[in-house]
Amino acid sequence: MGEILNGKTALVTGASSGIGRAAAVALAAAGAQVALVARRVERLRDLAGEIEAGGGKALARAADVTDEHDAAAAVEDTVGHFGGLDILVNAAGMTQVGKVENGDLADWRYVFELNFWSAFYTSRAAIPALKAGGGDIVNISSTAGRRAVGATFGPYAASKFALTAFNESLRAEVTLAGIRVCIIEPGATATEIHEHIKDEKVREFTRNHVEKDGAMQPEDVAAAIVFAVSLPPRVNISQLVIRPSVDARVL
Asked: Reduced to 3 states, what is the DSSP secondary structure of residue 36?
């Protein structure tokens, strides 16, 4: 394990797959002890074993972060287990399609619950611990939070736009308390984000998009996370857009 984050404790939501999993591995490799939070507990236990086999420290904590109380309890358990919290990475997220006129309101609501409200809940719960010694909140968004493309992905884009506004208002609120707040907006990244899309054609389109040649890997986003939280305390990267270097116009 590395040294740059030695002595730091990180909590990562969405740690069972994709960017969250890669972030947990990268933070542990940099020396942080990591709380792994997601619903799929078996995956979390396997990841914790992997991190510990490499000499790191990990806590597998099953939680549904769309539930305010469960999200807060996960933060509380992390602080209790490791003795504090220095880094919060809100990587839990998903996409679903739907239009305003006739889309499924349950889909719209759940996308917001996971992509926006979960980050609100964990951030709110983490602020007291982060104030104790200064720390970082990193929210994982998307380039879809900068530009909504068409009507199909309205729920996803709207939730990510909301996350961007939340990120900036939170940064202004806590910066004088020594807490840095960063939002990272990746372009096409090979993750499982397409899995829960109900429309088969859109699901296949999204799968092809995120897995096309030149798309980024979760480890690329994880490297950006480690970079942002490793900078001197006087530096706050408030917004970081990363895109594939190949054909960035469409990725």
From this structure: strand
The alpha carbon of residue 21 and the mean position of all alpha carbons in its chain are separated, in whole angstroms, by 10
| Nearest Cα residue to 224 out of 234, 214, 216, 213 | 216
pTM: predicted TM-score of the whole model, two decimal places: 0.92
pLDDT in tens, 93-150: 977 777 888 888 999 999 999 999 999 999 999 999 999 989 999 999 998 788 877 6
Q: How far is CA 161 from the centre of its chain?
A: 15
| Ramachandran sector of residue 214 (left: φ over 0; alpha: ψ -120 to 50; beta: rest) | left
Distance CA 155, CA 34 (A): 31
Q: Determine the 3-state secondary structure of 189 from DSSP.
A: strand
Give CA–CA dist 203/197, Å, rounded: 5
Interacting residues of 215 by C-beta distance below 8 A, sequence separation 6+: 188, 189, 190, 209, 244, 251
Rounded to the nearest 5 degrees, what angle is found at the Cα of 174, between the Cα atoms of 173 and 175? 105
110: annotated active-site residue:
no
Find the catalytic residue in 82, 110, 153, 156. Answer: 156
Q: How many CB atoms lie within 10 A of CB 149?
A: 11
In Å, how far are 63, 86, 182, 223, 244 from 220, measured between CA atoms? 26, 22, 16, 5, 10
**C-alpha to C-alpha distance for 4 and 229, rounded to whole angstroms:** 10
